[in-house]
Amino acid sequence: MGSRALLMLTNFNFKTTVSSFGSASNPFFLIKNNLRTRNFSTKTRSSLQPPDLPGLAETARISLAPNEVEEFAPKIGQVIDWFGQLQAVDLDNVEPAIRADTEGDNLREDAPQTFENKEALIASVPSYEEPYIKVPKVLNKE
Amino acid sequence: MLSTIQPPRYLSRFPLRGRTKSRSFHILSSAQPVTKTCFAADQSQILSIRDSLLNRHLSAVELTHSYLDRLKQTEPHINCFLHVSDPDKVLKQAQDIDDKIKRNEEVGPLAGVLVAIKDNICTADMPSTGGSYILEGYRPPFDATAVKRLKDLGAIVVGKTNLDEFGMGSTTEASAFKVTANPWDLSRVPGGSSGGSAASVSARQCVVSLGSDTGGSVRQPASFCGVVGLKPTYGRVSRFGLMAYASSLDVIGCFGSSVADTGILLHAISGHDSLDATSSKREVPDFTSQFTYASSLKSRPLEGLRVGLIRETVDAGVDSGVKSAIEGAAAHLEQLGCVLKEVSLPSFSLGLPAYYILASSESSSNLSRYDGVRYGNQASSDELNGLYEESRAKGFGSEVKMRILMGTYALSAGYYDAYYKRAQQVRTIIRKSFKAALDENDILISPAAPSAAYKIGEKKNDPLAMYAGDIMTVNVNLAGLPALVLPCGFVEGGAVGLPVGLQIIGAAFDEEKLVKVGHIFEQTLEGYNFVPPLVTDVGGASPEL
């Protein structure tokens, strides 16, 4: 069941700009490609450097055990390869959309409001020494 | 055409009004006696409850007891809840409602309605863990706006439901605490990430529930569990109090056992909130105002409605059983008068990698707040970075860690243009293609998932196989559109078959049309019982309405 669903992930290459949506000619692309690339390929599509897991973990402030690095690396590599298929799409002159933009910005007045339940906020802090949230010292790395 | 896989005995035990030509839709009418039927899909449970309470046919306490008993009996099998409210507190709330009614005081439109809330939505008086160890035991200092609105209208929160950690997953197996089972087959997943909320409504442990939908997390479990799931337009419902996963995609959605209930629930939580800058100021219509009594439905009530079946969603890769259920649903729509045609969205399959790039990237940023300093579980360390690294290493599960790492990669200098920016451009393309399709059609339809519920553990070690299941749903989040999923048929599997949901997609802010079409579809669909056998097998508690 899962492997059949993977057929839907097969990449199809846009050789021309995607300018018309829902036009009759495009579906033939899909059919041709589906037949050609029936098996999901895990070859590296991306020409960029593969992810450096320990470096990423440091940036993300998560410490990874060696067995986790071993376990995650191939899975993450596979997914990032799969992301790479977007490289093949012609995206010239397409504006990036930050969000769906179903509506314009709705900013409120920049006026402070008192939050009533401060005790609950403080109660949640694991290490509190009035009036400080306590943390261990900062070690400067070079 | 429409394949009925269930054995006849279930149909006869619940004499569905669907077997006869005329159905009556129970709307407020104190003159009519309340007929004792069980969970028939053609009712609005919310309106029936209101009717019974106001006419003193049933007390809120009796109703609450009935649901709590069923919860207690079904919960050991399905494990929907991470936290169940103290029964005494819940019964006290019910008692307060009964007292008000006795004194002829007004009660809210959701008075006595038991609601379950997904655990990534903050509730001040209950733990809210997001399904993660890092927030084990955390009690938020505020209610999410959606929760506050429900409580103000008289709803009773019965507990917090299980989910994939922080909404990341499609099976509810990625919860730090437990795995929820599908009420239709306990060896199968309920879907995710709002699996607990979907299964809870399916097993009739509560009347309605709230979930969240970032890439299909309300719609896919609705399909897997045979309940109705409604994803609103991005901005329709305030996200304040929803633990952010991907801020440009997240919405809070509704589950119910009928389209009417999800419409009523959505109306209750919708509307502008000054605490959410992305919430729309648009007026919220009464989503159920266009409902027609089934008995007064013309023979072709949806005459002329233009329906587009998305061709890419019934192509290779979709289960044949799902395909035939959707084809059956399409034929049913045609019988109701719809004009059906196939629509092609060529950029459709690009949505999946674009979604995962955007979602991972945004989640890597959103989850950086979980550092063990101001809330949640804190690891011990003698220096600050170590505190962050250890707290997060211990607190997060594997799927969350992987997505944070993927997102960190996609956003890093040198890769941002290649991944994140390109994904945003794909989002523009998808938005435009949906808009073009919805200019030519009133609604679009597709399956909610390429298959029915699969076995627990089946997709656990293969992330891409799991992500592939989201193909039907992610594009809708990228475009910010509303979508309704309602059960339309069954496929083989489990004791009596596994439910399949039809997804109906509408234009932005057009939830009213979705609910109207869904309601008529549901009212006129004959020969199905979408109550899982677990509910009747468990026995004991007699059905209440």
Q: If you had to describe this structure to a student in words, what would you say it looks like?
A:
- The complex is a heterodimer of chains A (142) and B (545).
- Chain A has a domain at 50-88.
- In chain A, 34% of the residues lie in helices and 3% in strands.
- Chain A has five helices and two strands, in the order αααααββ.
- Chain A has a two-stranded antiparallel ribbon.
- The longest helix of chain A has 18 residues, at 66-83.
- Residues 10-45 of chain A have low confidence and may be disordered.
- With 545 residues, chain B is an alpha/beta fold.
- Chain B is 36% helix and 12% strand.
- Chain B has helices at residues 8-13, 45-54, 60-78, 87-102, 145-152, 195-202, 219-225, 259-269, 320-335, 351-366, 384-395, 398-411, 417-440, 463-468, 474-479, 511-524, 533-537, and strands at residues 81-84, 114-118, 156-161, 208-213, 228-231, 251-256, 306-310, 339-343, 443-447, 483-491, 498-505.
- Chain B has an eleven-stranded mixed β-sheet with strand order 1-3-2-4-6-5-10-11-9-7-8, sandwiched between helices.
- In chain B, α8 (259-269) packs antiparallel against α16 and α10 crosses α13.
- The radius of gyration of chain B is 22 Å and the shape is globular.
- The model of chain B is unreliable at 1-42 and 540-545 (pLDDT under 50).
- At the A-B interface, α1, α2, α3, α4 and α5 of A face α10, α11, α12, α13 and α14 of B.
- Chain B: It catalyses: L-glutamyl-tRNA(Gln) + L-glutamine + ATP + H2O = L-glutaminyl-tRNA(Gln) + L-glutamate + ADP + phosphate + H(+).
Task: State the gist of this model.
The complex is a heterodimer of chains A (142) and B (545). Chain A has 142 residues and is mainly α.
